[in-house]
Amino acid sequence: MKVIIHDLESSRAQALLPAPASSANANTVVISDDGTIHNCIGCFGCWVKTPGACVIRDNYGDLGALLGKCDDELIIISRCFYGGYSPFVKNVLDRSIPYIHPDFVIRNKEMHHKRRYRNHFDLTVWFYGTDISECEKETALELVQSNADNFYCTLRKVGFVSDISEIAGLIK
Amino acid sequence: MKIALINGSPKASGSLSGQILQDLRERLLAHSRQTDGSACDTDISIYQCNKPQINQQDLWQIATCDALVFAFPLYVDSIPSHLLRCLSQMEEYLRPLSTGKEMRVYALANCGFYEGVQNKLALNMMQNWCARTELIWGHGLGIGGGGMQASILGIPDNHSMKRGLAGALNNMTRHILSGSSADHAFIDPAIPRFAYQIGGAVGWRQQIKANGLKVKDLALRR
After folding, report:
1. What CATH number is given to the structural domain containing A129?
2. How many angstroms separate the Cα of B130 from the Cα of each of B9, B91, B127, B139, B183?
3. I need a labelling partner for A83 at 20 to 30 A (CA). Which of A60, B128, B154, B220 fits?
4. Residue A109's domain spans which residues?
5. CA distance A147 to A11
6. Under an 8 A CB cutoff, do A103 and B75 touch?
7. Tens of pLDDT along A59-78?
8. What ipTM goes with this model?
9. β-strand partners of B109
10. Interface mutation target, options A54, A70, A82, chain B, most CBs of B under 10 Å
11. Is this structure's pTM higher than 0.90?
12. Nearest Cα to Cα of residue A100 among A88, A85, A111
């Protein structure tokens, strides 16, 4: 399964992303902003009350399980905010921590969380924005690598575009 | 000097970020008293940023400050999404007012990982926010071992467990009051990493059992 997380308006998303109904993309799940997402409240309920699932039962409560089924690629398309993701995309990632296990492990001389699932996927991130500074790009590159380390995935690509239409045809 | 302490934890009460800001507030007042004989000229307010929106009254008050001090937990290697929304709102509000104003920004990020340095990217993002908002970056402190730092805050500064944290908070205090800037600083807990790791594992097991579940449920797959 492939997962796409994006913050595009629906008309932009329709133009740039694969049509969800087509049989070629039946195995692709697209996470869009429907305006109802709640922010993570830091309760750790997804680890100790309903392990593997967020206790907030809105439309974004099962992102951990969804990532657990992702065995191809996670594609993130986000406006660049201060060298990171936009609030919606970050909200989705914050709500995805049930994908990992609360216990700690040491990898590459640093503490990380243990993995809950055994799947593996690649990570591709497209940042867009007309005036992304060099400092922001530098932060974003390091951030995506850290995310890849913590989500046990392989970083495939980080791209920066000033206009989102530049990625037309690149998302399959 | 007017200082805004901005708590970026999503928790309404009992957060480590809130406790760090309370501790910092005491240090700021004590340091002001030591240097001026009184702390009358130091006006400190605490603001809660636990929702994805900051109200107009708070924005208006924050805009009048000389220093903004953010404390927040690390979420997925960076700034929690609700605080990101508030920062975006603050950027829109503060940038037009920033010309000629010497407002400095300081940040304290804390994480559950042992290594304080894992907060670096969140602090870099705060620095990038500062540049976008046309404010002056002051200093960032990355605090590791968030799972145990709350219990450390209550003990005396000269205790071996507290010395590192107290020293870092005192440095932050001096930078804020003198309006100076410095590179990020990072602190780890004053216990060995393996002990912290074991402590974390024991804590999660106690919590899941308290919720009526079994230890093996920690690894449930959905």
Report:
1. 3.40.50
2. 19, 8, 5, 11, 14
3. A60
4. 2-167
5. 29
6. no
7. 999 999 999 999 999 999 99
8. 0.96
9. B72, B142
10. A82
11. yes
12. A111
